[in-house]
Every structure is written in structure tokens, then in C-alpha cells.
Amino acid sequence: MPSAPEHTPPPLAGIGDEAAPDLGGQLAALAELGWKRLELRTVDGTAVAALDERTFDRAAGRIREAGTDVVAVASRIADWSRPATGDFAPDLAELDVLARRCAALDTRLVRIMSYPRDGLPEAEWGRRVRARLRELARRAEDAGLVLVHENCAGWAGDRADRALELLAEVDSPALRLLFDTGNGVAHGYRAPEMLRDLLDHVAHVHVKDAVTAPDGGVDYVLPGHGEAGTAECLRLLAAHGYAGTLSIEPHLHLRPHLRASGADPGRGDRSAFVAYGHALEDLVARTWHTGGRIRRPGGAARHAEDDAHRAGDGVPRAGDGVRRAEGVR
């Protein structure tokens, strides 16, 4: 008699500032969930690369003391705040800082995007993006980092063919993809359809979900409760053998992109973050079928397969709801 499909859940994490602006609150939210993995974006509203040395050292120490792994750093490189018409120097400088800080945090993954167009002709936009990412990937490879490009703002953010073209032209082990399950609602594409074309290249996953509001805006909801196809994305990833982390980015209370226009970005919310984490655990239990026994996702127990790729980044080692009218950020 054939055995039942095995529920072998992936490591679960969360972007900490979606729970609280301060690091203590971020770690407390993870502890409440029983998770030991953090995706670090900001501390007290300041990006990781912009923290002063003393503040960063103190933060890294607190993360270590909590026994928490940093699975990725969400950077500002090529994101919604840095159009392709802007100076390239801030991105190079940020990567230089993150090369040192990721080593201190024992993580390799750095989230990037591919530059808003800002009025450039289509061909020139693509040319600049590819040239810049070639240089960024070269420097990342030298530093032992892996840049993970998110399907969000930028030239390759909403089209699978462009994401594949970017990977092919850059042609570096230091550039892979981050797939966000919820961004398609705001950016006008079906996430599962896009993911099917990109599965071989996905090294990190953000989990969110959304619905289209009657006025055409976007409301963000618990995972599996929206129209983004989040459950289908999880099934696709499981069937494909995805070995990285699922990191929640609820967008229920924090809207980082609003800083660019001077508006209030909001604040993380611990109770909403924890509820979102539990909702993902339930969704994973229903959808993540990999081939015996059922294990609770994201819990304190560490598994041999998890230890094989420390912090769950899924990257091969060399040598071994709240309304938002704009797109997801």
C-alpha cells in the first residue's frame, strides 16, 4: 500500500520589522511563534546598512544571544526608492557595508530589486539594469554573498521572461531569485503562472496574500485567504523540492515604500504578525506535501536537512488586511 504524502515543512521566518520597529519586539514576536529565523530589514526604522557600527554590533549580539538565525537581509539596493536614473554609488556602497555585516550575521542572502524606470526609454532601462546587476553580482560573488532579486519594483519585477533574461545575461552564481507570493495582485500578474517559469532559480520566498478592493486598490489578508494564489505557489514549491525558507511579509500595518513620498509608513504589529505566522503554519500543513509523518512547521526543533543548508537559504554552497493603493514593497 503506498505511503501517504509526507508533510516535511520548510523553515519559517519573518521580516522582523513587520512585527515591531525595535529588535527586541521583533525577536519577541518570533519567540511567541516558536520560530528561530529572522529576515532583517530595519532596526528602529533604520536599514541594516545604515546603522552605525555600535548599533549594528549591539543588534548582531542580541540576535546571537537569542539563538536566532538571520536568513536574509532585505536591502534597499535597486529598490522602489532608487530609480535607474539615479546614482549607482549608493548601491555599491550599501553592498560593501552588507558584505561585512552579513558575515557578522552569518547570512548570505541579500534581497534586491531591479530599479524603477523613472521615464527612461524601455531599451535604456533594461540596459542600465543589466549592467548594474552584473557589477553588483560580481562584487557579491567576491564577498561570498548571493543577491536574490524580488518580483517587485523594477525592470524584471513583473515578468518571468525578463527575470530569466536578467539571470542569463548576468550569468553569476551570486544572482538568484526571491519569489513573493502576494505581489502579483498589485502588479497585475498571476503569481503561480509566473512561478512555474522561475522555480529552478528561486532561493528565497516571501509569503503574503492580497485581494483586489472594489475601488481597484489592494487589501492584504492572511495567507491563503486572498486571490494571489499563495496556496498554489506553496504546492508548486513543495513539489519542486524547494529547500529554502518561507518568510512572512504580512504588510498588514507597515508600508515601507511610503517613506519615499514622505508619508507615514506605519509600524509593525506584533499580534497581527503572530496571527499571520500561525495562519502560514496552518496553510503549510495543508499544502506542503513532499512525499510519513506530520511535523509542525517552523518550530523549535532543528532538523538534519535544515542544518545541511544553515539558516535555510537553499543556496548551494561553493565547494560543499490593510489597504495599499500602490504595489507591494
UniProtKB/TrEMBL annotation:
| SUPFAM superfamilies per record | Xylose isomerase-like
Species whose genome carries this gene: Nocardiopsis alborubida
Occurrences of domain Xylose isomerase-like TIM barrel (ranges): 27-251
Please indicate if the UniProt record lists Isomerase as a keyword: yes
Residue ranges annotated as compositionally biased, kind Basic and acidic residues, are: 302-312, 320-329
Write down what this protein is called. Sugar phosphate isomerase/epimerase
Tell me a Gene Ontology molecular-function term this record carries: isomerase activity
Which superkingdom, per the lineage? Bacteria
- Which is an annotated Pfam family here? AP_endonuc_2
Q: Where is this region: Disordered?
A: 293-329
Recorded hits in Gene3D superfamilies, A to Z, give: Divalent-metal-dependent TIM barrel enzymes (3.20.20.150)
Q: Where is the signal peptide?
A: none
Keyword entries, A-Z = Isomerase
